[in-house]
Amino acid sequence: MATDSPRQATIFDVARLAGVSHQTVSRVLNDLPNVRAATRARVEDAITKLRYVPSPAARALVTRRSRTIGLITTGGAEFGPSSTLLYFNAAARDARWSVFTANMVDWDQNSVRAAIEAFLRQSVEGIAVISGYERAAEAVAGMELTIPLVVLQATPRLGLDTVGADQYGAARAAVKHLLDLGHSAVGHLAGPRDSVDAQERERGWRDELEAHGLATQLMGVGDWTPAAGHRFGLEFDLGAMTAVFVANDQMAVGLIAAITERGRTVPGDVSVVGFDDIPEAAFFAPPLTTFRQDFQRIGQDMLSTLLARINSETVEALPQSIPTLIKRASTQAPR
User: Fold this and answer.
1) pTM of the full structure
2) How far is CA 331 from CA 6, 10, 225, 268, in A?
3) Which of 111, 118, 177, 282 is the most buried (most CB within 10 A)?
4) Other C-beta atoms lying within 10 Å of the C-beta of residue 22
């Protein structure tokens, strides 16, 4: 026998529970002034108890504001962008903004245009792009939008609001950590060629070695997966390198497995540094030295930048977050 689903709470239910008018509830929902603190608290408590979710469409009719954002993201499961996505959505929810998401597989102009046109039909007030790929920002920025846009990008771009982490500086710090341990032959397993983060990490590796008068002898290119790290680990000359800086942790775990299969040890024969500090990194064998990114701050900074543009506030470029070196057992001085 079918049962009726619970009725969704309305603004009138909230008003009744809080003992106020529905107009007062509307003022609280839209952060309007002239609501006493005690009254606002009662309304917010009623909203929580009833699990009331205001309708963006109804709110837009009253305020001429939709309080909605369009979010374009890639189809991959890379740890960095997916973590930033989670924190961006959490920050938007806390700020009482709704987010419509388009998960893109292809970044051609027609696909991007279709996604943005769908957002505009929903009356979004701004668009955010979370992607590690250069062509993503280029595709969206080239559309000359009339609403604000913010992009996750490691390198600032003229005329575009970007938020990101200092990938280049962290990569140099990763190599410096290995050099300080006494390594002079440091290889690199880079990420995909069209990844901005991978480009910056490779650039940092090259520049830090060159600053110490050392050659950049060995480099491979992977696709962020453990399989790519494993392939590289089976192929590279173990006698040529005593350390490898890997562009992300997933490839690092594959590399460590391959080195072990070849009868060598990490860090006894080869020291390995990763990037991102994924949750599993502390439990690798050995635990992985890596760089931890503050994805929560990046997601929050993206939202605050976008909302400032939407509200016509002065927007100053936020400083890049600085990844932190997490020293574990995968690095040591060379034998």
Assistant:
1) 0.80
2) 56, 58, 21, 8
3) 177
4) 15
